[in-house]
Amino acid sequence: MKTIKEGNTSIYTYESEKVSKDLPVFYNEVMKLNRDLSILLLNSINKHLMQIALPLSGTGIRGLRFMRELKADKIQNISFNDNSPEAIKLIKDNFKLNNLKHKALRKKRLVYIENQDANLFLLNSTGFDYIDIDPFGPPTPFLDASIKRLAREGILAVTATDTSALSGTYPKACKRKYWATPNRNAIMHEIGLRILIRRVQLIGVSHQKALTPIFSYSKDHYMRVFFTCLKSKDECDNIIKQHDTFNDAGPLWTGQLWNHKLVKAMLKECEDKETKQFLTILEAESKIEQVGFYQLHSICKKEKLTIPNFTTLIEKIKKAGFKVARTHFSDKGIRSNISYEELVNLLN
Ligand SMILES: C[S@@+](CC[C@H](N)C(=O)[O-])C[C@H]1O[C@@H](n2cnc3c(N)ncnc32)[C@H](O)[C@@H]1O
Q1: Assigned domain for 274 exists
Q2: Which of 70, 212, 234, 306 could be disulfide-bonded to 74 (CB atoms 3.0-4.6 Å)?
Q3: Digit-coded pLDDT (tens) for 93-108
Q4: 255 Cβ inside 6 Å of ligand 1
């Protein structure tokens, strides 16, 4: 065992040479950004006194950080759940490490720590305003119960780490789990993210809940989406209208991946340098309503052109009257409403 610190929260974690789901209790420091962004989003959105559920809590790091780092009026109560008894013991130890008394907090109905299967935990509950699904691999086994127990105007956060299925290494697995055909090309991560979004939305509409993405991204070994929920048949129809194929991939979500105002607010709230860099790209990218992006290296290779200076090209595209920004999906990509032909013209 060792003690690590994230934000101003310390936790005990198990020691191992590499991060693996075979650890007695899983912890991955690479997911710090995932947790940082969750905190920024909840602090930036106009929601207060939330009932928060973490059905797959692991060491409890996410929930403990929420308790420390979310603004004072954000949490009504917070539920930690994990089906592993070792995880539950560690969560309780981690409460102590942070001088928090979980028994006293439970008496005050502020904190609950449960040791159930995630779906049973959700179905046995009265519902939540924020549910964070952070599993090993696909979130699909937990979607139905989460969406059933998501409040009418709640927020659902979903992580998927089976990116090899979503981005086309295993197309059959993608078909089985996500009911869509992925791509294996320069824009495969965006396609995968949009396939994941549609899959979540399909479960949503079957419960008359319209789930709109407000903040999405693909990074390292995972994809992440936050949805807002509206219980409305018309809004569900509106969601379905935005499901389509894109080239030979899909069906997928063709609507916006972000709420621009929210990304802007998150950027304003952010203090960490690395997170700020990431959010700066997303903030610019979120102003452009376009499915897919241009991967300049593959375009230049195909058209036998020299790779341009990015800043100069972006200025040229803007001058020609189009919207353009870099994309977080690829450091060689740009998102723009310029057509392929017009872009090649500018590259010549
Ligand atoms: C990826 S880890 C969670 C990481 C954690 N959310 C964090 O931010 O560090 C997934 C957790 O889900 C738990 N788990 C896996 N299947 C489960 C199930 N069916 N019900 C409840 N917990 C489950 C595992 O024990 C593990 O602790």
Answers
A1: no
A2: 70
A3: 999 999 999 999 999 9
A4: no
